[in-house]
């Protein structure tokens, strides 16, 4: 694929991935068949900052986990009121990384 397209994708979407994944994403896109480019662009990535804000405001209800697609963990947090608040506080530090990991999984599913 064209390096210009890949660079544009990386500039626009770098915040959605962990920094140690960026080089792998770039290499995958460079070697990607042109026919899969549309699939990669159609993937909607979740914003880690939005997940953090949701975690701070409504983390006790599991809204942050529902947002990133962790339905089971969201139900668990909802039923336990965020693990009596402890789980909600822990997620303040973990939710951005979890969101970026989910985005990487979505990217890998699009390029397969």
UniProtKB/TrEMBL annotation:
InterPro entries: TM2, TM2D1-3-like. Keywords: Membrane, Transmembrane, Transmembrane helix. It comes from Flavobacterium noncentrifugens. The keyword rRNA processing does not apply. GO terms for cellular component: membrane. It is a multi-pass membrane protein. The chain crosses the membrane at residues 49-68, 74-95. Residues 45-93 form the TM2 domain. This is TM2 domain-containing protein. The lineage of its organism: Bacteria, Pseudomonadati, Bacteroidota, Flavobacteriia, Flavobacteriales. It is found in: Membrane.
